Amino acid sequence: MSTPTAPGPRSPLTPVSDRGRWRRLGCAIAFEWTKLAGVRSTLWLLATGTLLTVAGALLIGASARASGVNGYDTATPAPWIAAQNISFTQVAILLVAVFAVTSEYASGSIRTTLLSVPSRGSVLLAKAAVLAGGSAVTGAALVLLGTVSAAAVAAEYGTYTGAQLGHAVLGTAISLALTSILALGIGTTLRNTAGTILTLVVILFALSSVLPIFGQAWLTDLVAYLPGSAAGALVTNASEPYGPAAALAVLAGWAVAGLSAGYLALRSRDT
Amino acid sequence: MIEIDGLSKCFGKARAVDDLTVTIRPGLVTGFLGPNGAGKSTTMRMILGLDRPSAGRAHIDGHRYEELADPLRTVGAVLDARAGHPGQSARSHLLGVARSNGLARNRVTDVLETVGLEDVAAKRIGTFSLGMTQRLGIARALLGDPSVLLLDEPVNGLDPDGVLWIRGVMRTLAAEGRTVLVSSHLLSEMQDTADHLVIISRGRLVADESMSALLARRSAGAATVRSPHGPALATVLENAGMSVTIGADSVLQVTGADLDVIGTLAFDHGHRVDELTFRRPSLEEVYFDLTGAELEYTGRPIRTAVVAA
């Protein structure tokens, strides 16, 4: 720290021109990206996710091969192994999305954000764009990495086609992008980290086991429309309970609902 | 210029800000004073669009904050010390804020130099002392070269050097024709810095005038009189309708008359006067005079609890 000076001659500011709506959204996105990339926790979480992906793919691939060698029919295309594995490693990516908003409330930087970008809609859209884009790219990369890892150990018990790989990569990218937006929406609504993670775990993982316990048919049917089920259908190309198009619609519905709740909360609450 | 018109904020039944109307003019440092809980921070947050007013409006250069296209080019604000992710470096933090308003990258270096943080720009904000964090807040507020500045308790946590520096910054910014609104609970700090004072208590406006006018208005007839015949002179002055209190060494504090009237009375009654001075009130006295009866959280004397056996 050196001696401060009086506010001296200032560098010229960029001229105030062409400040259209889209350009401003672009500025907001650059802001969000700088924040997300500028903190170490993001890198740590991505490193953890990568490690889990490789480790999981190696483990499942090795298991598939061992069972196959022993005469069981467990051959699974390597991309599917990788994609199924993502359902656990996605937690690391979703935490990035959660922290992107809840850490702002914890640190008070949400005020800096809203002072810089007063339009609540722009703030949320910018965050959603950065998180969805980042999650999609990361998810695609992790599926590729997982596929290579699993294929290496599973050998002939993990053979796959290019179409299978393409589907797993695309399905994972889309499902992670939409689930990240859902996480962002819940985080914006609840504002605190613990509550948001708990809610996400309940919606994504716990409810699918809890709802059938009540023995009510309609509750059990509801399980198919939980975001976890939709993400699974989107990734694995299953026709049960519905095809990829319906899965995309269900998951997008969750994302839009979460983001809308977050928008209403951000608009109506004092900061 | 900040125009506040009928601004109110209710939290449940409590009125934090109650029908506040005031204009903060450019070219001056305007001190925003009031007891804790008087509504200063709430008012500032409403000006900045962070809190929604229950009634009324606040305009900055004729616009609501939310209507400003690139708000940081118009308004710079230092609210509280916690304003960035502790894991982000100072430079990265400022760079993000600059990008959000399409500001040139070299502005970040400029403001870091202005506040004297260029040597620690790569350090994470979480490792900063409170004083450094306040400087970072000033840097962030200056990024867009704004015409309006709002500072909420900016000298909090600053060492004497920092206090002196920030006082200079505020004076310079006002001298450049900017609008500077600064809240503080440090009255002596305001007495040295502010040209104009806005005082609120329980969310209501109790004073809106220049520092000199405020002090002059309250100082009429306040005099210190020292005389070897203190008690006798006190009786004379009281008989003439003045209010007199006798302090240590029979020094009289007299209100209700000008110096020449007191001097004449003493002369006429043959009392020697060793000192007859105009007593200038401190901002504290004026402040407590204006707000004292309406303190939100008035302290009570501590009593020893009697525990029944």
UniProtKB/TrEMBL annotation, chain A:
The chain crosses the membrane at residues 43-66, 86-107, 128-153, 165-185, 197-219, 245-266. It comes from the Bacteria. Keywords: Membrane, Transmembrane, Transmembrane helix. The keyword Transmembrane applies. This is ABC transporter.
TrEMBL record, chain B:
Pfam families: ABC_tran. Keywords: ATP-binding, Nucleotide-binding, Transport. GO terms for molecular function: ATP binding. InterPro entries: AAA+_ATPase, ABC_transporter-like_ATP-bd, P-loop_NTPase. It comes from the Bacteria. Residues 2-227 form the ABC transporter domain. Belongs to the ABC transporter superfamily. This is ATP-binding cassette domain-containing protein. It comes from Occultella glacieicola.
